Amino acid sequence: MDLEKKTKWSSAGALIALGIVYGDIGTSPLYTMNSILNSARSTQHLNEFVIGSVSLVFWTLMLITTIKYVLIALRADNHGEGGIFALYSRVQSVNKKWLLIPALIGGSALLADGTLTPAVTVTTAIEGLKGQGFGVLSFPNDQFVVMVTVTVILVIIFTFQRAGTKKIGNLFGPVMLVWFLFIGFFGLINIFSDLSILKALSPVYAIQVLVSPENKTGIFILGSVFLATTGAEALYSDMGHVGKHNIYISWPFVYTMLILNYMGQGAWIMTHSSQANLLKQASNPFFEILPHSWRLVGVILATLAAVIASQALISGAYTLVSEAINLKVIPRLRTFYPSDARGQMYIATVNWILCAIGLIIVWVFQTSHNMEAAYGLSITITMLMTTVLLFEFVRKYQSILVASLFAIVFGFIEVVFLIASLGKFLHGGYATLIIMLAILIMMTVWFYGNKRREQIAKKDDYLSLRDYRKQLVNLSEDENEPLFATNLVYIANVHQNYMLKRSVIYSLIGSKPKRAAVYWFVTVREATDPYEKSYAVDMMGTTNMVHVTFRLGFKVEPQIHLYIKQIANDLIKKEVLKPQFPRYAIDKHGSVSDFKYVIANQYSADLLRLPNIHPWDRFLIGGRLWLQGHTVKPSSFYGLELSDVIEETVPLFLDNNKKVKLIQSDLKNVVKKDNE
């Protein structure tokens, strides 16, 4: 079943949505109320504080998750795909190049904050076992044991990523269905212990608690409340996996179960306000609302939900990075596709970086309470950047008044949450901001370094392929030159008027001529449709020069060698190209001979030696060259690993006519011509 192409909801699709989309937001009850309790001044007037806090959670989920993301953002899909990069692709404009900036900031913040999700969710789940005994089984009340257990679980999760998640993913939906029913049921039971918690449905109590003397942190309590909606951005990003209609139909159920649990935790807190150490996070309200006989079941389900949330984050990170690579804002990374399932991919570099950061978070912050203090700061930045891009989307289809109203309302709400979350900076929020800045600097250097390199070199760096057409036709027919390859393919962007980098021409005829029966020039462009795979062919008025322009969406694996071979067969069948009659081939009926791929890399370091280059340009270009040297080769990125590939490095500047003044010091033993 191809869920991405479904336009209407289905029960199966809604079930799968539970497992894929709601992992992050579905585990928020594990730590949100526990974090909120840190803002309570005392237990004397705790009821007022709890009702107001639960009201804040209710209306935060209503305004941000339900209205902004489910009702508005899901409409801003890019051919069924969601997320900040898909949104940017939808609203980008030649006249509004600045829109890339909020996309870069939001993308880097989302990746940074996501590094905490596996650590905080798994740690919180395992902490529910501390000091618990189940028959002959008992779990020590020792945080070190918790940390070791979490480490083992995280290593297992990240190790199994390479195998793919297709089979495991089929179990996510049923497990999360049981999880939501479980938390909703026990939440509902506890609500009856103090029905006054139902007052939380009124926004009045949410406003009152912000200025209440019982709230010792004031507006900064919103930093903890925000934890309840951190998964909203992931919900939007994962839209392409399940379809928007399945999210529409499943969200009311998820929202109801979440609110029941938050209210149940609130009611339990109010009925146990006299409990010692209640406000010192000695016990987690999520686990305390469970009967002792159900505690082990709760921990098991919480652990499974945490693993699913982690898996959704990891898969989402792969998708986000893959989109960024194809948008040319992140260096190329080697990508594997474990299965034929759409969206299934594995990026080893991303996987082990996430694993390393997650383990560092576990051992540096140690407890879930400490991790909660660092969690959520960066995601507020992502949401704010999404609002900026959504403003452009709304303005396209609605009046400027409606778009401005949207931006003002949600911009204000998210700025308030951002200010409140800044209180987390000294308590661990600096960790995600450091990661965010590192990712943002890398994106900036890669994208703008490439742009500046192109602009500086553009003056003398491009030649017209049309001017060399006759030479290449003659070279192809010149039997005095050895045949270099039957099909010689260059991965090189050909621009208007057949302009391409002189490095390609230099590689062809500048040093040692490369004779081929057919010369191929391949240009890869980004398509609007994330899954588009189309191409156009230009024979340039010849029978042996082929310019192929691919339009590939940012979700498409660039397997150039397969595409070119298919195109060659089609052109031969249409008698556009001459049959090649390979003498030796696995396929007896094949009509295409050998292919050789050439990637001509310019020695761009020459730019750094230009006398008048600006220091900022020197930094961007130098950084870009450094990143290029530490990332995957173009041959791997374009799917040419198993092909015959030559990577050449040619000089950037070819000053063949430049005269150099030399001083001759001596000339000896010259044989003179006999005049006789």
Q: CATH homologous superfamily of the largest domain, by name? A: Amino acid/polyamine transporter I
Query: How many discrete structural domains?
Result: 2
Distance between the termini: 94 Å
Share of β-strand residues: 5-15%
Specify the CATH class of the largest domain.
Answer: Mainly Alpha
Biggest sheet overview: 6 strands, mixed
CATH architecture of the largest domain: Up-down Bundle
> What fraction, in percent, of the residue positions are helical?
40-55%
pLDDT < 50 runs, ≥5 residues: 1-7
Rounded Rg = 30 Å
Strand order of the largest sheet: 7-8-6-4-9-10
Q: Looking at the structure, what is the overall shape?
A: elongated
Structural class: alpha/beta
Number of helical runs? 26
Rounded average pLDDT? 80
CATH topology of the largest domain: Amino acid/polyamine transporter I
Structure summary, number of beta strands = 10
Describe the structure.
- The chain has 676 residues and is an alpha/beta fold.
- The chain has 2 domains: 3-448, Amino acid/polyamine transporter I (Up-down Bundle); 457-651, no CATH class.
- 54% of the residues lie in helices and 9% in strands.
- It has 26 helices and 10 strands.
- The strands form 3 sheets. Strands 7-8-6-4-9-10 form a 6-stranded mixed sheet.
- β1 and β2 (137-138) form a beta hairpin.
- α5 packs parallel to α19 (377-397) and α8 (143-159) crosses α16.
- The N and C termini lie far apart (94 Å).
- 45% of the residues are buried.
